[in-house]
Amino acid sequence: MTESITSPRFECEKKYRPSGHPLCSGVGVLICTLLLIAGCDSDSTTSIENLSANTSCCEHQQQTHQDITFALSTEQVHPENPFAIKLTLPKHTQVIKAHLEGVGMYMGRIPVLFNKVGANTWVATTQVGSCSEPTMRWQLVVETAQNTQPQSHHFQFISTPAY
């Protein structure tokens, strides 16, 4: 006895049969996975954990505003690459909140989370987004509190493409 094309068994086999496309096979999945892994270069970006843990990491582009010293971990900031920001604050001063924003172009607000790593030292690791312009000016806006009096501080720096 032959089964008809409309039988339940035939429908089930048709439903789970591979389409015949090379990427739908196990070999295709393996090839795609290998290509994805090969595209990841772990040496090209700085370890976020290393940046945040190293309090002496940030010695570039130092600026001071109202007794707060700002410094970056890299001489040049490149979009979509992690970098660290170090703040040295006066005694009894806390970072309340911080964010990055574009100066010449609206790029949204990028939250920056600082961790206290020393008596007066705060470090955060962050990234900036890509821009259609060759250079982009960014501003770190930091809200601090000293003896419950809030203050706002602004520090600017420039990002350039990594090529």
Q: What do you see in this structure?
A:
- It is a single chain.
- The chain has 163 residues and is of the alpha+beta class.
- Helices cover 18% and strands 37% of the residues.
- It contains three helices and nine strands.
- It has helices at 8-16, 26-39, 48-53, and strands at 60-65, 68-72, 83-88, 93-102, 109-111, 115-116, 121-126, 136-146, 149-159.
- The strands form two sheets. The protein has a five-stranded antiparallel β-sheet. It has a four-stranded antiparallel β-sheet with strand order 5-4-8-9, with no helix packed on it.
- A hairpin with a 2-residue loop joins strand 8 (136-146) and strand 9.
- It starts with 7 loop residues before the first helix and ends with a strand.
- Mean pLDDT is 77; it is low at 34-49.
